[in-house]
Design a protein that fits this description.
Elements: H1 10-34, H2 37-44, E1 46-51, E2 54-55, E3 59-61, E4 67-68, H3 70-82, E5 85-90, H4 96-101, E6 107-113, H5 116-119, E7 123-131, E8 133-137, H6 140-143, E9 157-161, H7 165-173, E10 178-182, H8 185-193, E11 199-203, H9 204-213, E12 220-223, E13 229-235, H10 240-255, H11 258-267
Parallel strand pairs: 1-5, 1-6, 9-10, 9-11
Antiparallel strand pairs: 2-3, 3-4, 6-13, 7-13, 8-11, 8-12
């Protein structure tokens, strides 16, 4: 009969199997690297920013339609460090993170508070700023809402940006109050002026900007120390290189005091800190 070939020694069999698996893993790693956000950004020559454009001093659209603000300057420096052009997409605040998840934007910088819930969906680098809540109102009693439990009634009408931590905080602070969600702070300021709502609950930089831009409206504000609002840069999850690059970029902005300079430019004070 035909002579039987000797069986392949087991160690050789496992060695070949290991090499095959290693080669496959290496190929997959190369494909993943080629598909990284940084590679895509450099290939297209554009960093696509998602921002709401309706949070004065942080991100806002001026009379000419240009998007400006503290957050936009950070994105501008980010694009410059990549040697690419910054392309800004303005959309409602509550649509920003879904756009990031869907790959419609590369990064979101829009006064976004880092929360555990949001961090389950996207990655964050920062904070590049810490903030807190405040209420813009014409009613001094409402401005001191922390000391006024009688205000927790349906008669109290508060505005808050839809999908923001301010909306969540308003519902927690005043569970019985009427919360009116808005998409735009200009609309909210008008509602406070016209007494359609008693006040607007928002973040500290927004409060300061509204008081400054409406000097004759009788607005008063109270800064709340009840909340800690770490503001961060939102990035796609599962992209370690992009997250690492952005963290190093932010550290360089801070180390060169560029971040402090931007804070003085937009807020008149150095209230920006990691």
């Amino acid at each position: 009969g035909k002579k039987k070939e000797p069986n392949m020694p087991r160690f050789i069999h496992f060695s070949l199997l290991f090499l095959l698996l290693f080669a496959t893993a290496g190929s997959n790693a190369m494909e993943a690297a080629n598909d990284s956000a940084l590679t895509r950004i450099q290939q297209r020559g554009q960093l696509i920013l998602g921002t709401s454009g309706n949070m004065p001093t942080m991100t806002q659209v001026d009379a000419s339609g240009k998007v400006t603000g503290f957050d936009i300057d950070i994105a501008r420096f980010m694009a410059s460090s990549m040697d690419v052009k910054l392309v800004t997409k303005v959309m409602p605040f509550n649509e920003l993170l879904p756009a990031l998840e869907a790959g419609k934007v590369d990064v979101v910088i829009s006064n976004v508070t880092i929360t555990s819930k949001r961090n389950l969906r996207v990655a964050f680098v920062g904070p590049y700023m810490t903030s807190g809540k405040c209420i813009v109102t014409k009613d001094k009693a409402l401005a001191e809402a922390q000391k006024s439990p009688d205000l927790n009634t349906p008669a109290t009408r508060l505005a808050a940006l839809k999908g923001s931590t301010s909306e969540d905080f308003a519902r927690e602070l005043f569970p019985q109050a009427t919360i009116v969600t808005v998409q735009d702070y200009t609309e909210a300021a008008g509602m406070v002026k016209d007494d359609k709502v008693g006040g607007l609950l928002t973040d500290y930089p927004i409060c300061m900007a509204m008081l400054k831009s409406n000097p004759d409206s009788g607005f008063v504000s109270l800064f709340s120390l009840l909340t800690y609002e770490p503001i961060g840069i939102a990035l796609p999850p599962n992209d370690a290189q992009f997250i690492n690059w952005t963290n190093n970029f932010l550290q360089r902005l801070e180390g060169t005091e560029t971040l402090k300079g931007l804070g003085k430019l937009w807020f008149g004070e150095a209230n920006v800190k990691r």
